[in-house]
Every structure is written in C-alpha cells, then in structure tokens.
Amino acid sequence: MTESRRNILNSIANALSVADQVDLSGRRSFGVGPRPYPVVAPPSAPGIGTGMPNEDAPAGIGPSRWQAEFLAALERQSTSSEVVESPVLARLKLAGQFKEEGVTKVMAWTAEHLPVPGILESLKVLGIEVINPTTPLLSEAGSESRGEMRRLILAELEGVDLGLTGADFAFANTGTVVLGSGPGRSRLVSQLARRHVVLLPVSRLMPTPEDWLASLRHTGSLLVLTQPANVALVSGPSRTIDIELSPALGVHGPRLLHVVLIDNI
Amino acid sequence: MSRLFHRQVAAALADAQLRSTLHRSTRRLHQWRAEAYQETTDFSQLQAAAGNARQQALAKLPELLEQLETQARANGVHVFWAKDASAATAHVVDLARQMERHGRPPRIVKARSATCDEIGLDGALTAASLPYTDTQIGDYILQLSDDAPSHRVFPALHRRKEDVGALFQQKLDMPETLNIQAMAGMARFKLRRTILHADLAITGVSFAVAETGTLAVVSDTGNDRLMNAVASVHVLLMGIDKVVPTLDDLVFLAQMLTRSAEGAAAPSYLNLYHGPSSTPTDPDGPREMHLIVLDNGRSELLRQGFGQSLACIHCGACLNACPIYREVGGHVYGSHYGGPIGAILMPLLPTPAPQMGFFSDLPYASTLCGACAEVCPVGIDIPGLLLKLRNEPDASNHARRTPISGRKRIPGRHLFRWVMNSPRRYRLGGRLLRAAARVWGRERIRRLPPPFRDWASGRDLPVPAARPFRDRWTEARTTRSPQGVMPND
To answer: Which of A91, B34, B156, B157 is positioned for an S-S bond with B138, CB 3.0–4.6 A?
Structure first.
C-alpha cells in the first residue's frame, strides 16, 4: 500500500519533470490566469457578485436586492417558493397549510435547527405527527439487530409525505440552498420524502457561490465547512433526463422542492 | 483503420433509428449548452480561466495528492493508492468480502462513474459473486438490458422511450407506457427498496479538494446522497486527475461542468463528502469511508506529453459537438470514454490485449474540424492531441502495430503534395478527378485506385462539381460583378 503510494507519486513527479520540457499543455498555453476565478454567472442587480463578504457589503445592498434573482432562479429549476414576512407568520401559515393539504406525517430537523420557533409544536397541535430521524443511528447498529432495526426505521420514514429542514446558506444566481448534515440534521429528511420544504431566513441569502466562499475565507471559517460529514448544495428537486433527455422529477430525492423565504429574523 | 471499427461504424450508420435518436439528443444538448453560456461571463474568458485552473492543478499533482490524503485522513477517510485497475478492483472486492455476514454478501449499490467502468469493476464484482445494482437511471436501464454505456454523462442516450417502456414492461412487470415520468417513477420504486437495504455504496468523485479533503459528487437525482445516508460503508473511486487545490476551483469548475454537460446553472445536487458520520449523534451516514486514488496509466500519459487531456472534467460537450459521434454514437468507440476525448484517452490508458490495436486506431475517427475544442470548458486542444497521437503512434501504450492509414510513408501523400504545389498540375488533377468521378461514383466517391486506395477506404469524397470553380469565376468576372457568384455558388 505505502509502496504503491510512493510509486504513484514518484512516477507522477518524474512524468512532470519530463513533461515540462516536452510540453505539458500541448499547443495551447493559458499562462497564469486570474485568481480568484471569474464569477461564472454574475447576478444582474448592480453592485453584487463582486466577491465581497456579506457583512462588508455597502449600505443598501442587502439580501433583499437579490431576493428577486433568487426567486427567479428557483422558478427556472422547477422549485416553488413563497416569501413570508416573519417567523411567526411562517409558523401559522405553514402549519395551517400542511393541515389543509392533508399532511399527516412530517419528518424534520430538530427544532433548534429550524429558523421558525415553535413550528413543530404547531404541527403537533394540529394532529400532524412529527418524526426526527435521529435515533438509533442507522449505521451504528450492531450486525445482528441492524437489518431488522433499519428495516423498521426506514419503513416508517418511507411513508412520510413531507421533509422539513432549514438551510445554512443560499445562492441567488443559481437558486441553491446549502444543507449541512449533523446531529438533528438528518440527510434522509431532505432525501426520502416526496416533498421537501426548506425554511430559509433571508439573511442567509448570498448573491453567488463565489461570495459564499469569499465570506467563509474572510471569517476564517473554511474548515468549519468540513465539520458536517455531508454538505449538499441543492438546486432544484431530484430529476433525471436520462430517458430521451425528457425531464422526470423525483427519482432518488424529492419530486417537489419548496423554499419558504423568511424575512425579519 | 481496423476492420472491426469499420464494421461497427457501418452497422451504426445503417441503424436509422439510432441515428435519429442521436441527432436529436446531441443537438439538444449542444443547444442547451450554448444557451447556458449566454447569461454568463464571456465563455472564452471562462474557458481560459478553467483551462488554467486545471493545468495548474496538474502541474502540482504530487503535492496536491499528498495534501488531499492528509486532509482526508484527518476527516476520518481511509485512503488507498491503486497503481492499476486490478489493484483497485481487488481492494473493492476485499472491502466487500469483509462485510460478508454468515456467508451473505453485502448489498452493493453503485452510482455512475466512468472510473468504475474503466477499471472493469462490474466484471470484478460479478466474478467474485458479489451482486450489485446500478442506481443511476441510465445505468439501471443498461444493467437490466445487458447493454453498454454510450455517452459520458447520459449512458443510455442511444435508447428510445419505446425501448425503455418495453424493457420495464418485460423486466419490471410495468404496464405498457410511453410516459417517461411514469418510467422514472417505476425506477424510483424499484431502486428505492434496493438502496434502503444497501450495505456498501460505491461512487465516483467529480472533484477532490486538496485544501479541505472534500470529495465532491455532481448528480441530478441525488442517488449518491441517499446511498451515502443509508449504507454503512461508502467507497469513492477517483483518478489522480480529479484533485483540485481549493474550494474555489470546485465551485468554479462544477458550474462549468453542468453548464457544459446539460445547460444547467447548477446540478440538482453538488454533494460534498467529508468523512464518515463523526459523532454518535449523527442521525445517518456511513460508518466507514474509503477513498481509492487510481493511477492506471495516467502518470505514463503525463510523461508522454498528453497531460493536457487529464484536464478533462468529463462534461461530454465534445461528444455532443462532434460530427462523428453525432452520426455513430458511443458504442463504436468500444469503451466508456467515447467521442473525441475518448479517442485520446483510450489509446493511452492501459487496456486488455484484445482491444489494443482497436484503440490505437481511434485518433483517426476524427475530421479534425475543431468543434470539440471550441466547446471544451477547459480548452483542451483535442484536435492537436489527436494529430500528435497520429504522428507519435508509439506513444500509445499498446500500438506496436501501425494502423494502415497512419503509416509514416504514404506514397499518395507525396503525390498529393506534388499536385497541390503547382497551379497547372492542380488543374490537370481536377480534370482527372472529374473524369474519374464519372466512373466511380454518382454522389460520393467511395473508392480510389492505388496509391489512394487505403486512404479512401475510410473516407467518402463528394463528387467534384461538373464545372470547376475556376471556370465559373473566370466567366463571372467577364460577365457580371463578382459578388453575384461568390456566396452560394
């Protein structure tokens, strides 16, 4: 193992020392290019997408400026959305709406990871069952009991109509929400149910993914990103165009993705 | 060119349904790609920046791989270095064997990965009596029908919905349908059961970030994330070329990838994996994560001066743009890396002996029109590399046999040069060719006498115009203004 590691690294190093003279790049040479890279799709609103960290943004250029851009990007990728003026309104509105739609069972991140206080209680009051798929840990279960236990958990989760999560960040130009896994933040919540509802405070909205990275670097929190075992950048529902390039939704993930943008947090 | 290649091309060309499916699909993908770059920063600027990013990464490959290894280990990932395909497959089989319980093999699920195809993982698993299921919809269709992938991103691009409907009816007891959403729903239903019982998940890696040890997988269905959430062991397989220095490279290149592959601003899922579930309170995720770093001829390819081809981010845009691929599809290339980039990679990567001569002919399956280089998001000079391969047949790992059309001394080439070097001889040559056309062909000239016979065996020529342009030009100059004849004559 360590030998093949050494062999591989040596042969690459040797190859590079030869290739440097031979011409690594073929005929076309790009030279030293710009860093940071150009923003691929700069947002259309002026003054944003400059790679500036959020808190340094000049006055008057805030998330509300690129909210319209975000909503348009969501719509382009078959994601529905609504804007709610406050967390309290979000709680009242969503709970009532779910009840009306006949939702009986919701799986969700735990309350401390949702930006709408009391939402889970409100659902329960209305008779909607809430599941936090936290225990027991699927992958930790012992070899004997594991199969049986997993079957039970997954059988229960599979029947759930709706998954409810928060989001760490969102990008306006690509219509992306960022979901980090971790305690109380099951991946299955946003993957298993047919419908995934994301509760997103407007303050987490950034113009582009490039701005997100710039702000992570600016605050020295780049390695915080690696804490969650899985960080998913989700842009639209699960989809496939594998059959004749015709879009079909909801394959290994939700068929419906809905983002609730919450102001005043 | 080898007879086998000719036979396959002839068969593909004779298949009218295949051709109409390919035409429609490649043109659409090509069009979507073009539209996706209309709203962005100027494409040539992005292309230069992306090409630069990839080449800088390749130039620092050993350092980046070591940094990646250190970070991944710190994140709790096991790292295995595989010199070649057999070392990689043996390791996967080993890991799977360790998971056997009471003689029952682990339930294995796989996501789309050309690297898995490259090392022949399917065959190795089957040989070791380890059943597996492909969870990517295209691959699932192919697995059900024992078919081979024909496109880098959409492996079942050559299949029509009628085929898939009939296949699902026969294999999955699905009522007859042409509704694609219903077929996807059926696949979801079948695959979800399998995935929810999976023990071992095997995926590729789209980009590996050295600074953080992030292993990124691009996907639209999210199959890798579901597999990762449920299975107790997750194995990720990457070629040494997949490493990039920073998260900035990842975010930048991933956008280039999906815009080029399918015209989307972003994939539905860009999944960043950092390691196994870290704390006992993590609700889901694997108990173990294994990264396999594969060389398999890449360092040799680099040494031969073809390193630029490793800049490839596997978007498939060159396939969709290629006039050859558009006509014949991916199967005739005889491997998982088809199209223009495949014609460079396959002769250079190690392959089983029976296919050696076949792959060394692939660089000739190109008109060198340059459509591929134009759309390549990382600006690989594909025609240049194809020419380089033609001129240096020995660079190819296994081309000890010189392909007919690549012979160093083609007598006809000297004759051609001699003719083209004198206006008088050119005129005479044109006259001869027109006379010959009357004998050999009505619409296309398919055969020529020696010394051009071998050359023409792989090429059709249009019949020369009845009256040469020179004559028409002279006549037009004397009778009317030149603008009248120039554009469409």
So the answer is: B156
> Which of chain B's residues have a Cβ under 8 Å away from the Cβ of A49?
none
Distance separating alpha carbons of residues A87 and A92, to the nearest angstrom: 9
Dihedral angle over CA of B238, B243, B246, B251, nearest 10: -60
Nearest alpha-carbon partner for B180 in B156, B162, B157, B155: B162
Residues of B in contact with A246 (CB under 8 A): 161, 180
Do the chains contact at A235 and B276, CB–CB below 8 Å?
no
CA distance A261 to chain B (A): 19
Do B302 and A213 make contact, defined as CB atoms within 8 angstroms?
A: no
Measured CA distances, B194 to A10, B131, B135, B140, B203 (Å): 42, 12, 9, 12, 16
pLDDT values of chain A reduced to their tens digit, one per residue, 265 residues: 588 999 999 999 999 887 654 454 443 444 444 457 888 988 775 544 444 444 444 444 466 778 999 999 999 999 999 999 999 999 999 999 999 999 999 999 999 999 999 999 999 999 999 988 764 445 444 445 556 666 777 777 777 889 999 999 999 999 999 999 998 999 999 999 999 999 999 999 999 999 999 988 888 888 888 889 999 999 999 999 999 999 999 999 999 999 999 997 6
- Identify which of A5, A12, A16 has the alpha carbon closest to the alpha carbon of residue B83: A5
Task: Provide the shortest C-alpha distance from residue A198 to chain B (in Å).
Answer: 15
pTM: 0.89
Contact of B195 with B109, CB cutoff 8 Å: yes
The CA-based angle B61-B217-B380, given to 5 degrees, is: 50
- Find, in chain A, the residue whose alpha carbon is nearest to that of B299: A12
